[in-house]
Amino acid sequence: MADQYAQSGEDKRPAEIPAIRWEEPPEGPVLVLLDQTRLPAEEVELVCTDASALVEAIRSLAVRGAPLLGIAGAYGVALAAARGFDVDDAANALAGARPTAVNLSVGVRRARAAYRAELAEGGDPAQGARAALAAARQLHREDAEASVRMAGHGLALLDELLPGGGHRVLTHCNTGALVSGGEGTAFAVALAAHRVGRLRRLWVDETRPLLQGARLTAYEAARNGMAYTLLTDNAAGSLFAAGEVDAVLIGADRIAADGSVANKVGSYPLAVLARYHHVPFIVVAPVTTVDLETPDGASIEVEQRPGFEVTEAMAAQAPVTGAGGGIPVAPLGTQAYNPAFDVTPPELVTAIVTEEGVVSPVTADALAELCGRARRGGAGAAL
Ligand code: MRU
């Protein structure tokens, strides 16, 4: 495909605003989020002073993406504790804010366990709050470290599967620094390939209906000076048919014990296309996204989102309020099918790349072994 259709990112500024940060102004602790509903039009921060504001930010996707949801959930528990709210109530509300990304409940559980352990040892609520905050900070750091290691393993795998470099990688949704304590999951692998001069092109699916690819991945690719091209989701088939895709790299919201992968809706059709065209379909996710308690893909709860996200076009600069308010693109009263995620069966996944290494072929035994190794002392310890 001719490169005149391609856009090379020119904005090489590093991200100035982190996706999430904890602050302690004199009025009391707050959690500050980069409001992702406003990108790329505006870089606006959202300040949460309590867990219910954070729950709303999670539901509206101001903060989103599996690893970041885990970090946010942990900080949310710390915030509730530090502000003197009921920690169990806050933890339950946070863990239930979105159902599919397992990292959210993992993060919440971890901070709540730290809080409870401190109280069980005779600490007062203020000490419990400090313990919860320390747990959140630890998870944040671990996610950043996991990101570096996933990028290393993922790049090595790409080089092995595609000798000669010049990788043309298709990605879906958004998996970069906006979803992570570090540089992300799948996007971090593409970024690593870019930095060593082996990424020829990043194909970015726009990711209907909320455009995480167009609004967020293109924003991150441009900031990093990567050669990227945006396509509508339904153009992917012709791109494969034209032989323009060497590998698909995506993230995950939950990986069941049998290796089924829940990720942004539209991932499964890419896996089918990849199999038909003999292209590797690679999932990049931290061990915290593997959920051995969910036996298989059919047991994964897929979040259903409001129909107006499909029947109306939302302007990127307008905050998603949950009440519609966009420009109608379908007759009034049209019903919409709007699952946020789909599930790809393990037989369509070439490899799962984690910070602990690569699982390929994807089997229940290999995943169980990986999680056991992580819990015995790797990055997933203490989950
Ligand atoms: O609905 P979102 O925007 O939270 O969905 C995010 C995704 O599907 C990502 O691909 C997934 O969380 C993996 S991010 C590392």
TrEMBL record:
Pathway: Amino-acid biosynthesis; L-methionine biosynthesis via salvage pathway; L-methionine from S-methyl-5-thio-alpha-D-ribose 1-phosphate: step 1/6. The record marks 173 as: Transition state stabilizer. It comes from the Bacteria. The active site is at 253 (proton donor). Residues 1-21 are annotated as: Disordered. Substrate binds at residues 64-66, 98, 212, 263-264. Pfam families: IF-2B (PF01008). Transmembrane segments: none annotated. GO terms for biological process: L-methionine salvage from methylthioadenosine. GO terms for molecular function: S-methyl-5-thioribose-1-phosphate isomerase activity. Keywords: Amino-acid biosynthesis, Isomerase, Methionine biosynthesis. Its EC number is 5.3.1.23. It catalyses: 5-(methylsulfanyl)-alpha-D-ribose 1-phosphate = 5-(methylsulfanyl)-D-ribulose 1-phosphate. The keyword Oxidoreductase does not apply. SUPFAM superfamilies: NagB/RpiA/CoA transferase-like. Catalyzes the interconversion of methylthioribose-1-phosphate (MTR-1-P) into methylthioribulose-1-phosphate (MTRu-1-P). Belongs to the EIF-2B alpha/beta/delta subunits family. MtnA subfamily. This is Methylthioribose-1-phosphate isomerase. It comes from Streptomyces asoensis.
